[in-house]
Amino acid sequence: MKTNLLLISILGFSGWLQAQDTIRSLIITEASFTTSSAYVELTNSGDSALHLNRFEFGVIHPYDKRIDTTDLNRWFFVGQDDWFMLPDTMLDPGESIVFTGSSLPSGNSDEEDCWYVRYHNTFWSVDTEPLLIRDSIVTDQVGGIFTGPAGQQAPGVKDAAGVPGATRNSILVRKFSIIQGNIDFEKGRGTNAFESEWIVIPLQVHDTSVCRNQFWTLGNHVNAHLGPETLLSNTIAINWTDTTLVIPWGIRRDDPVMKEFTRKPGIAWHYDYSASYNDSAYLSAQTGDVLTLFACGDNAEVIPFRITVSDATADANIVIPKRLVDPVLSFAGQGPLYEVTENVPGMDTIRGDALTANSYAAHIDTLFKYLEGAPAAMWEIVFVDGIEKIFVKNGDLLRVKSESGLVKDYYIKVTGQYINYDAFVTSDIYTVDQVSYNITCNLMQNDSIPVTEFISNLIPSQGASIRVFNSNYLEKTGIVEPGDFIVVTSVDGYNKSYYTIQVFIVNANTADFKSIRIFPIPSQGVLNISGIPERSRITVKDITGRNLIETIANKNTIQISLENKPAGMYFIRISNDTGSVCYKVIVK
Prior knowledge:
Layout: E1 8-12, H1 21-24, E2 26-32, E3 39-44, E4 50-51, E5 55-60, E6 74-79, E7 83-85, E8 90-91, E9 96-100, E10 114-120, E11 136-142, H2 166-169, E12 170-174, H3 185-188, E13 198-202, E14 237-239, E15 244-247, E16 267-272, E17 290-296, E18 300-309, E19 319-321, E20 339-340, E21 348-351, H4 364-369, E22 371-373, E23 378-382, E24 397-401, E25 407-412, E26 425-426, E27 431-433, E28 438-444, H5 451-456, E29 459-460, E30 465-469, E31 485-489, E32 496-506, E33 517-519, E34 526-530, E35 536-542, E36 547-553, E37 558-561, E38 568-576, E39 579-587
């Protein structure tokens, strides 16, 4: 009867299996241990092709059990999901293969782990006895420091080349001069850059590190050098004598700077922000930033270049997202509110997790606040529905016009369904004054308007409700009268607007009421009324309906004083034998 296969692999050295150059030439040449961007590069450093299906690739975690606690030439019990055999393919000399993310053993990585390569001298079958691999040898590893309990992988991050915590804060690149594997990482990591087998490239720690570009070291392993022949750009002026870079305005910090150079194998970089970084919202490159370049070869060649940013040109018509400020008014560690694509086919896009319908990020003033543009450029929103608003909706365009007249459009992507939280009305039947909040109705003598008909002739903002009240704040259901007012309530119930209803009687004798003008509105207390029909009665009421002033106009222009009255809303009725009109006025 077959014995069930244990879901572990037992790794060990055979005493009789001799390590040959051909099996030690598949080495780990680059490794990132960080969980969010873990990867391992393997390279054939020999002079003949390797059949990869003889090699096992795996990971050892802290506290994985040792087979032998005294003999470092014996290895570990490794879980089923923590190793696999490499694909059945040939790897030519100098060629590399990279494993990232879910393609790694166990599907991820940790800064405390150890990655290893093991060579199998013979094939074996999983249908035989419990898996005991005798005819194999571990040929290379990185990150393994076996000083934990019972000789296990030590917990915690590991130093390398004198860099504390290198497996957490850096990427490790093998020197090109190392052509055979080494299972003693304790010795291979060294205590300084000179004696280490590894070149340590610090990770970016800024807010733009989430989606980093890979260094030009990955996928190739070369003997790289820094010099005028390896660093070329059509846009950036490179001064090798002063080690300075003059960068055009509009290029973003961090990885985007490297897009301005011709890609060369073996080059890595680190971008340091100027001293004003914590007090700056800008994601564009700034004068005083430093770009440090690394050439990874037999040794590391490292040159820091200080950056100067030139002024925006007259043709500059791009926008760049800005960072948010935190509650203590610092920009440190804060990301941008919007994502703005660069030079994509068709049209660039402004988008972002925060850019949803009804969010503060959808307001135009917020959009303009958190985007950077050339000082002389002009911006405008092109509304997809042709209706000017204070917010943007999906499909609107940000149109940027440069000083020289060049135009660039950005598509604005807003997610979610817009709900209008405003409270206002418009009408195709009545005249609606959105400044003084008056609704004027023109009626023939003896006509009237039922409340239901009046409301049906109004167009509220999306989802808003309308109710009609008289001057005593009692809701009405009958006939609309001068001095009545409406309350418009937004869909969420939070915002309300009040409109006074003015009923204007139109006939041959009252057409001259149309000449009446009341100003200024709002008023500081003194109101001028002009265009009054002869012998008209002027009545002023407060919001409770109480008469404050009542007089007969003997001329067509009079002045009324409410200076001794409290600030608020007042109603002025002008009437004669043929009709009347009512106006709402605001006194500050």
